[in-house]
């Protein structure tokens, strides 16, 4: 029904962005909301509309390639929109494609909601069907390098908490997040929500 929406990003939360177009605010769930900036300039977001009996949701991506991989993942039994977003949020979905092609179940089960059965299903359903997306630079989730502090005197701590909330929304458990939080707190080079999320996702893929 929708291909893309062009408008101004008015709000960024840990689960979604609000894109205003023609005085309508569209609630759009994305792999990493903090990759979007609240600026006056219009931004283009590629849309996937997910409809069930009890809900209608919009999912947004910066490139068509990201949306294509999202839709491929939705075709796998056992993977819903939330699980597909968590996989895309890893920041380098080409790793996921490589894991599918090489039948690396151990890597795939590191994502929230993906057990051995789902990992095997991903391989059975998608292996050999993602060639056009292999090593595509447009699959990397963009970063927002100049994110401004949102709160008070300790913005870095606030960015960390925002990142933890966003990761929880993607399906990572408190137990998993508590394992990596000390490492994030000790890393002085992390100063934005985006940088905390990227580092946390890398750690989450290695701690299991």
Automatic annotation (TrEMBL):
Q: Which HAMAP family match?
A: DNA_HJ_migration_RuvA (MF_00031)
Protein's recorded name: Holliday junction branch migration complex subunit RuvA
CDD domains linked: UBA_RuvA_C
Which NCBIfam families does the entry mention?
ruvA (TIGR00084)
Swiss-Prot/TrEMBL domain comment: Has three domains with a flexible linker between the domains II and III and assumes an 'L' shape. Domain III is highly mobile and contacts RuvB.
Complex formation: Homotetramer. Forms an RuvA(8)-RuvB(12)-Holliday junction (HJ) complex. HJ DNA is sandwiched between 2 RuvA tetramers; dsDNA enters through RuvA and exits via RuvB. An RuvB hexamer assembles on each DNA strand where it exits the tetramer. Each RuvB hexamer is contacted by two RuvA subunits (via domain III) on 2 adjacent RuvB subunits; this complex drives branch migration. In the full resolvosome a probable DNA-RuvA(4)-RuvB(12)-RuvC(2) complex forms which resolves the HJ.
For this UniProt entry, the molecular function terms from Gene Ontology, in alphabetical order, are: ATP binding; four-way junction DNA binding; four-way junction helicase activity
Q: Where is this region: Domain III?
A: 155-208
Q: State its role.
A: The RuvA-RuvB-RuvC complex processes Holliday junction (HJ) DNA during genetic recombination and DNA repair, while the RuvA-RuvB complex plays an important role in the rescue of blocked DNA replication forks via replication fork reversal (RFR). RuvA specifically binds to HJ cruciform DNA, conferring on it an open structure. The RuvB hexamer acts as an ATP-dependent pump, pulling dsDNA into and through the RuvAB complex. HJ branch migration allows RuvC to scan DNA until it finds its consensus sequence, where it cleaves and resolves the cruciform DNA.
Record bears the keyword DNA repair: yes
| Biological source species | Ureibacillus acetophenoni
* Subcellular localization, as worded in the UniProt entry: Cytoplasm
């Amino acid at each position: 029904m929708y291909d893309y929406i062009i408008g101004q990003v008015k709000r960024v939360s840990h689960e979604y962005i609000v894109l205003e177009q023609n005085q309508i605010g569209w609630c759009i769930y994305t792999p990493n909301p903090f990759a979007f900036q609240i600026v006056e300039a219009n931004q283009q977001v590629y849309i996937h509309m997910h409809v069930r009996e009890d809900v209608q949701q919009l999912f947004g991506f910066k490139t068509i390639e990201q949306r294509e991989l999202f839709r491929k993942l939705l075709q796998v039994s056992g993977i819903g929109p939330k699980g597909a977003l968590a996989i895309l949020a890893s920041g380098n979905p080409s790793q996921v494609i490589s894991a599918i092609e090489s039948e690396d179940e151990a890597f795939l089960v590191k994502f929230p909601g993906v057990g051995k059965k789902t990992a095997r299903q991903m391989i059975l359903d998608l292996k050999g069907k993602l060639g056009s997306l292999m090593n595509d630079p447009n699959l990397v989730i963009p970063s927002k390098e100049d994110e401004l502090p949102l709160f008070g005197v300790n913005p870095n701590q606030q960015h960390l908490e925002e990142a933890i909330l966003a990761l929880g929304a993607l399906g990572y458990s408190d137990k998993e997040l508590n394992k990596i939080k000390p490492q994030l707190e000790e890393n002085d080079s992390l100063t934005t929500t985006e940088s905390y999320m990227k580092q946390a996702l890398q750690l989450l893929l290695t701690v299991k």
